[in-house]
Amino acid sequence: MTHDAVTSADHAAPAALIADGRAHLGIELGSTRIKAALVDDAGAVLATGSHAWENTLAEDNWTYALEDAEAGLQACYADLAAQVRERHGAEITELASIGISGMMHGYLALDAEGEQLVPFRTWRNTYTEDAAAELSSTLELNIPLRWSVSHLLHAARGGEEHVDRLGAITTLAGWVHRRLTGRHVLGVGDASGMFPIAADGTDYDAELLERAGGLEAFRDRPWSLTDLLPEVLVAGQDAGELTEEGARLLDPSGTLRPGAVAAPPEGDAGTGMVATNAVGARTGNVSAGTSAFAMVVLEGPLSGPREEIDLVTTPAGHPVAMIHTNNCTGDLDAWLGIFARFAELSGSPVPAEELYSTLFRAGAEGEADAGGVLSYNYLSGEHQTGVPSGRPLLVREQSAGFTLENLMRAQLHGAFGALAVGMRALLVDEGVQLDVMHAHGGIFRTAGVAQQVLADSIDTPVAVGASAGEGGAWGMALLAAYARRRRHGDGDLSLTDFLDQEVFADEDQSVLDPSPEGVTGYARWLEAYTAALPVERLAGETLA
């Protein structure tokens, strides 16, 4: 079986490439969909697959059942395999490489045998405030509520029975990777959402591990933090291979064989950076979905800890400032669903793509400050704006211009509202230099609309590439291809050079500069948005 580099002829013959086991698979477990992308060595997409799933709120804990994760992986892979058969007349029997990514952060607690101890606690939970505050004070860094160490300390401080039985903690991507390969490892980007990473970007910070281990709630345990945390790997390092058991988990039919090179599992923030080629200094990317986060690759240290800013890394270990928001497109999608239902009732149903495009373009025609209409898209609490329990709200002044155009403009502004608050701390207060912000996610599919709103909200050029819609699964497939290349090809090729030379060299991009009117209008809107936040907080206190 040959695994030579893909040639130009291979692009015209994907069936042969797939049949020879030379394709690379990336799977990402996102907040609403599990997606798969199958690519060649240069990142050309051969096929995709997907499966819808949802989190649940059980006993005040946002969670996903791991049984649903297993079933979803299998359904997603089966969808991919079916598309391969339909499009290429081929069967996937072997893969060159595989990579898993998932929602960053959260808390997945396992015993010594790898069995789950408590339900998965996702990034969306905000009950770790006291634990995160203690860690931030002890480590003299901003430790966010959703980080794994915050969840661990919360459980330990609360005297939860499972804590002494811990054998390992990991993220969702780390758990799936462990099931597929048997390795308890994590890519540095995802690991940086578990515990702070050292300055060299290759491992956890040893001094901070010692400091954290001295906390009262962590003392006298049958484990140390080092025992529990996954091994840290940077992009391209050896993360194992797909085992026989892993292949059967992914493909119960028995068609897929083991042996694929495994990339270090990553978080969705890292795959978003790869998918937009935003891994170099003074570049950044925004990933917009149910939640949103902006990643800006830093040239140097910040002035000090800031509550709005998380310090994480690229998949290659370079320092990154992350602005994370719990809410982005969820309420916008709900409003679009209302309009879709109206169209149905009127006897003229509109396809989803056309509906989104029509209403987004209407929003582009709205007043620059949305005419006094405010939208709070808070399906859950929002730490960036100090809202502990979210309630979606549409608020307007008596004299507001309440038109369809302004309503949709407010919805688009609101999707990036909390993100804009955090970005001001980074770009204005900290003076971080950002040449271009790359964007990806479904909200950018209507050309130029959400892209312009984002550019105006952060007063920075925003680029959307032709590949942006491929998303994190594609980014993870690229990391898998890079891992295969490092293992069996060029062992010294940097991730930046791989992306620049092999993947994005000929990519078409649309770049929009911020408009003076849009920047001024968004600033007025954001001032009103922040001033009215007490109304949003009150809604959380009074609306069940």
From TrEMBL:
Residues 285-483 form the Carbohydrate kinase FGGY C-terminal domain. Its EC number is 2.7.1.17. Keywords: Carbohydrate metabolism, Kinase, Transferase, Xylose metabolism. The keyword Thylakoid does not apply. It is an enzyme of class 2 (transferase). InterPro entries: ATPase_NBD, FGGY_C, FGGY_Carb_Kinase, FGGY_N. Residues 25-248 form the Carbohydrate kinase FGGY N-terminal domain. The keyword rRNA processing does not apply. Belongs to the FGGY kinase family. PANTHER family: SUGAR KINASE, XYLULOSE KINASE. This is Xylulokinase.
